[in-house]
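Notebook entry, structure prediction.
Reason for the run: the old model in the group folder had no record of what sequence produced it. Starting over properly, with the input documented here first.
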Amino acid sequence: MQYDVTVIGSGPGGYVAAIRCAQLGMKTAIIEKYPVLGGTCLNVGCIPSKALLDSSEHYYNAVHNFKTHGIEIKEIKANLSQMIERKRDVVSKTCEGLAYLMKKNKINVYHGVGSFVNKNTIKITAQNNSSTEITSKNVIIATGSKPSTLPSVPIDKQRIITSTEALELKEIPKHMIVIGGGVIGMELGSVYARLGTKITVIEYMDSIIPTMDKSLGKELQKVLSRLGFEFNFNHKVTGATVKANEVTVTAEDSHGNKKEFRADYCLVSTGRKPYTEGLGLENAGVKLDERGRVEVDHHLQTNVPGIYAIGDVVRGPMLAHKAEEEGILVAEQLAGQKPHINYLLIPGVVYTWPEVASVGYTEEQLKEKGHAYKSGSFPFKALGRARASMDLDGFVKVLADKHTDEILGVHIIGPRAADVIAEAVIAMEFRAAAEDIARSSHAHPTFTEAFKEACLAATENRAIHI
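New structure, fully documented this time:
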């Protein structure tokens, strides 16, 4: 078969790229190594983790908050197997929807491992080892990433686990060690902490979610500590062993003192790494960078004309929505259009509760750049909507240019931060000033009023409700 575009990988970047190519009139194929489409995000990442986060949050509220709302339940029990079964159903229906979209857009789907024979020929090897070859004028590599591991911590997938296994546990752990204080560790740690698990975090850096604005990590740490998290910062993990049903993790603090931590499970959440194995990139002459990512230019084209790469397999934040934007960019470029992506305005989100969301420059980055700025913040506890829902933790912080008032960064920890951040992204795409938001009517009562109030605070300290 001859195609205009072939996409290798069916995660958010890959399937969005394929759909946009098909919409633009290109004959399109997509290759997925697993029997089900959707990649990490739909199958063992974004979607299933959010399903479990929601289930555990409902349980936590039933135990701790329903009585205050006037809802009395005599017996409350966490049924982990049912939570996981519901998660599977959410995943299944989402993936079924994706298969429908492929059919609707007349995209040919191949199941098997796609590898380059040469720059225009791809071999597809099915699970039964049968193979077929297709040719394609253009190829988009969208093979995503897989969990990073530590050489000193062997993953047995039983007691020492990654995020993939954490989504399928058979029991609620009594005590879980989480290696890594990033997004994945905090989200999955939250799932089990709400169900009664003691969580011990071991982090190499001096804070959790270290890539975000420092104020967000500090506030999230306070909230999670109340949930039962214990934090050990500036600790380097040196090993892990399993004996019977107990995991022992060894670590050294910044002074060289050796420590041991024991629990019944250990979640290794030290980030993710690009997945390029088995692609046969050498057959096409595609280069990797020093970190194992596919090298691309600002058009997302590799060193080989006609071969592109997007998402987790290239530079930049490993986020599903970043991959989607890149998939659309490549498709529209191939159609002769002139799309663009402002990578500064791709938001980051942590789906704990309260949620954490951030876009633009952090305060630390502005200080490092020597950029003159002003700051305004507003606490959710001063917001009527937040009081009504009992979501009093967190704040919105707005950073704006000291002279022009243009919004440079927005950092939120609070209820529905993942949704509220979209307003900040739109404002910043249009290069809005803090006063532009401050003078825009916001419905009352809503969580988005906190963003308006923070912009008022950044504009001559004019916040109304504090």
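Summary: The chain has 14 helices and 22 strands.
The old model has been moved to the deprecated folder.
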